[in-house]
Each structure stands twice: as C-alpha cells, then as structure tokens.
Design brief:
The radius of gyration is 19 Å and the shape is globular. It has one domain: 7 Propeller (Methylamine Dehydrogenase, Chain H), CATH 2.130.10. By secondary structure, it is mainly β. The N terminus is likely disordered.
Length: about 350
C-alpha cells in the first residue's frame, strides 16, 4: 500500500463588498473555491471565493456530511452518510474546475461513511460508522482496498499523521480515539479521551493530537509521540469540530455556544473567541433540530492553504462565515444550501 507523500487539508452590491474587503489587511478575496456539503438537500455548493457567490450546485447521495479535497485541488470527495432511517454507502467524486460529478463510488457493505481525508492523489481514508472501521478507497478504481476495525462506537472523524504513517479516528459513542497504523493496516490502540469525542486534528507541528469531547465540554490534547495526555482544556458549549492551521493555531467550533474558539497549538492557551451574531432558522429536517435553541449551530470549520482565512458552516442558519485569522474579525457571510456542514477548500476556480 502506498503511504502519503504529502497532505493538505457581479452586481453593485458585490462590487461594494469587494471594495470593502480590500480595505481589510490581507482582505482580498481568494481566487479559489469553497465546496460545501448541504446535508438536508443532498447537494454540494461550489462557492467562488473571489465573487463570494455559489457558481454551481451539484447532486450527491443522501446526507452528504464531509468533503475531502485532493492534494492537487482538482477533486472533491463527498461522503454520503445517509439519513436517520437509511444509512448511506456511497461517495460522490466532483471535478471542481468543470463543476461536474465524475462518479458515484459504491461502498457495498460499508455504511454510514463520514470523515474523509486523501492519503495521496489516488487513495482516501474514510470512516465507516456502521462497520466500526476506517476504510481505504482507491478513487480511480472505485474500490475499497483495505478495512481496519476500530472496535469503537460511532467512529466519526479522521485525522492523518503523515510523519508516523498513522490515522486517528474520533469515536463519539465510545468517548475515545483509535490509533491506526496505515503501513501495517492494523489498529494500534484505543485511547479514552472524554464523553462524545467527535472532532480531531493533528497540530501543524505534528506534536499533538487535539480531540473535542462534545458531551464533556472539554478538549483533550495528546502527545503524538507517546500518546500520553499532554493537556486538557475546559471548553463549554458543545465543542464539536477541530482543525489545525499551518500557523500554529487550532480552531474549535462550539455548537451550543454558537461560536468559534481559537487556541495556541503550542501553549494550549485560548487566544480569542469569535462570537457569531446569527440565529437558527427553521429547524425541520436538521440533524440537531432545536437542541441548541437559537444557536446557528456552527459545525464545519476549515482553513485556506496559508492559514490566513477560516470558514465556519452554520448548520441551522444556512450560511458560511469567513474569518480573517490574523485579526479574528468576520470578513463576510456567504450563502450555501440547506444545513451546510462539511467543507473543502481548493485553490482552483470553477472555469466551466
């Protein structure tokens, strides 16, 4: 099995917006694309970040939850999780530049695919919740090439550790992470972190694994070398996702609090809280319903390749917030489809 060589995670009003953005330090819009999975309508929105508008909406399988972007930025791989009643078992492959669905990959007996990360330009690692497993998929041949059992409940998100040839899954039901050796194709260990372990990220330095324990309202930080606990942070408000930036920060969305917490990846210090002045819309057919009151339910969070900008998807408000990480200021709000969650950033534009 090949191991990864690298990882990466027009109207007048628009003209005014662009002009305002250019007044913000480092505020020029990206000539790039944001892919957004809309869970409640089985679509992916492709947003042109220079225009700040959706330029294409493409169909997926039921319940698209997460998106992985290939290392060259060409493809978006979408996990079709399914609904409460029906577990999904497929992936949707999208060509970003042409804004087309390339193929639907049938996963057969592997059901409820969720977290996704590309290992290289050919393979992707996917969590299969219903199978308590991490599977490797050859995207070109559309085949599952390996399955590694986690033996844990609700293996949800996945993060990669290229320096050690590992993958880690966060297991909500078991309150743990699973350490997986990709070279050997075997599980190394399961490590308890806290109730509702869901979000997971490896710091840019590769030194630490960050795990958000949503039910415990804590963040557990593990030493990636020893797999021992290096720290724990109280983070009230249902910490649900984590992503590491290239510039030494870790971003955590908190669904109940309706905000984004930003931490120093080295000192574990809380740097700032970005509050969102957004309220929940109609809650019908949304995963969390009215569980968090008027919160916009921020879940998905990603950063650009430089680590200067971040985007947060608000599942109960149908918008995406763009944040300048240098100042912590909210730059603009983008529209997506119904119940946006997982996202992917590509340096390519839609050119069709």
């Amino acid at each position: 099995m090949k191991l990864p060589a690298r990882f990466d995670p027009t109207g007048s009003s628009c003209a005014v917006l662009v002009a305002l953005l250019l007044l913000v330090p480092g505020g020029a819009p990206h000539a790039a694309t944001l892919a957004v999975a809309n869970k409640a309508e089985a679509t992916v929105s492709l947003i042109d970040l220079e225009q700040g508008e959706v330029v294409a909406t493409l169909p997926t399988g039921e319940g698209p939850h997460e998106i992985g972007i290939s290392p060259d930025g060409r493809f978006a791989l979408v996990t079709n999780y399914g609904t409460r009643e029906r577990g999904g078992n497929s992936l949707t492959l999208i060509d970003i530049a042409s804004a087309t669905v390339v193929s639907t990959i049938d996963l057969g007996d592997y059901r409820r695919p969720h977290g996704v990360e590309w290992l290289d330009g050919e393979q992707a690692a996917i969590t299969a919740e219903a199978n308590k497993a991490l599977i490797l998929v050859d995207v070109a041949s559309r085949k599952v090439t390996l399955s590694i059992g986690t033996d844990q409940e609700v293996s949800h998100m996945v993060a990669l550790d290229p320096a050690r040839g590992r993958a880690y899954t966060a297991n909500i039901g078991s309150g743990s992470i699973t350490v997986l050796d990709l070279g050997k194709g075997a599980r190394e260990s399961n490590i308890a972190t806290g109730d509702g372990a869901e979000g997971i990220a490896v710091s840019a330095s590769g030194k630490h694994i960050w795990v958000t324990n949503r039910a415990a309202d804590t963040i557990t930080i593990l030493d990636a070398g020893t797999l021992q606990k290096a720290g724990e942070i109280s983070s009230e408000g249902f910490p649900i996702r984590a992503t590491a930036t290239p510039k030494g920060q870790v971003l955590v969305t908190r669904a109940r609090a309706g905000d984004l917490a930003i931490y120093d990846a080295h000192t574990f210090e809380e740097l700032r809280i970005v509050a969102f002045d957004l309220e929940s819309m109609d809650v019908e057919e949304r995963l969390f319903g009215d569980r968090f009151g008027n919160s916009s339910v921020p879940i998905g969070v990603i950063v650009d390749s430089e680590g200067d900008r971040a985007w947060v998807a608000h599942a109960n408000a149908d918008v995406i917030t763009e944040i300048d990480l240098r100042s912590g200021s909210i730059v603009r709000t983008l529209r997506a489809g119904k119940e946006p969650d997982g996202m992917g950033f590509s340096n390519l534009k839609v050119t069709r």
